[in-house]
Amino acid sequence: MNPLISVGVPVCGTPLPLLHACLESIATQDYPSLEILVIDDNGTRDEQKECSRAVKSFIKAHKDTPHAKDIRYICHGSNKGLVQARRTVFEEAHGFFTTLVDSDDMLASPNAVSTLYQAAVSADGVTPAPDGGFDAVQCGAVLYGKDSALIEQKRLMMEKVDVHKAQSVVSERKDISSLFLQNNFSSFVWAKLYKTETVLEAYETIPFMNCTYQEDLLFSYFFMRTAKSYRCIPQQFYIYNIDTGMSAATPITNLRRWRHICTASSVYTTILYDMQERPLPADSPVASWIHDNYFDCITRNAYMLLHRVDKELYGEAQNIFLESWGQESASKAIASVQEMDRQGKLFYKSKPSAAS
């Protein structure tokens, strides 16, 4: 008998057509025992009512869809950020395994969950995986969007979502964070099936925070410090929408979105503090990698400030940026981007290493 698998869908400001497409891609999965958790993280009562109605209308309109009846709607009551929305998914999940699908993304195939499950419980189809299953199984992803040039730029930044070969790692100790630095392993949270209890253990060390930018890196760092086994499979089962979301390459026209982007600073504060409290092995390259990502991220934020923030918001946005990252570091990042501009260098033509 197949164990229950949970699929979490955090929702905040997602256009209803995208949410419906996301739910349809999950509700049509051929895996027999599924629960779908829609976590409403919208900030206003009107947005919450709209989300609730959308979920109910989807269930009503898809009575003959295999898993429409397995959708469970959970409302936060306020906007708590993606870190907390994902935490709620795992806390509410009844499944032995759980996967996350962002509400503007989709699963690419009806057999995505069933294939991930088979990969989670056995690396070769015969030998059982350790401890009842791998702590995580990562599949490949397809980048989707209207701008083909932007897709190519994103592909440079997100090369690890394209899995080129199958690979498994099992460790006797609870710290496989060095996996971040291996070519096949992605620090994005999506496009993975997780052992639920392992993630809950990791969340015990993640503080509560309202964060919606670089939250993938936060989750993956703490998860990798808890997990003992990890597997990659080559199939591309996840469709990632580059046209929406906090990091979409669109003009920033309100300070709310900009504040969310600057919450990335709290991610690095949390990770650096954890590395201080729980030092990594002396031979681990992860500390250096995290520091490199810190400088990449603050520079990227400075680039957004100078190139994407609406000019009428610039003064207030700059103050938020300086306050979030610290006056000295933020000023250096702005100066760095200004120098790149003078030299005609395109920041996004480089190959950043951090998840965003």
Describe the structure.
The chain has 356 residues and is α/β, with parallel strands linked by helices. The protein folds into two domains: 5-241, Spore Coat Polysaccharide Biosynthesis Protein SpsA, Chain A (Alpha-Beta Complex), CATH 3.90.550.10; 255-349. It is built from twelve helices and nine strands. It has helices spanning 16-27, 45-61, 82-92, 112-121, 148-157, 196-203, 215-224, 255-262, 264-277, 286-307, 314-325, 327-342, and strands at 5-11, 34-40, 71-75, 97-100, 106-107, 136-144, 167-170, 192-195, 229-241. Strands 1, 2, 3, 4, 5, 6, 7, 8 and 9 form a nine-stranded mixed sheet that branches. Helix 9 runs antiparallel to helix 10 (286-307). The chain is globular. The model is unreliable at 349-356 (pLDDT under 50).
CA-CA gap between termini: 38 Å
CATH architectural designation of the largest domain: Alpha-Beta Complex
Order of helices and strands: EHEHEHEEHEHEEHHEHHHHH
Structural class comes to alpha/beta
* Number of structurally distinct domains: 2
CATH top-level class of the largest domain: Alpha Beta
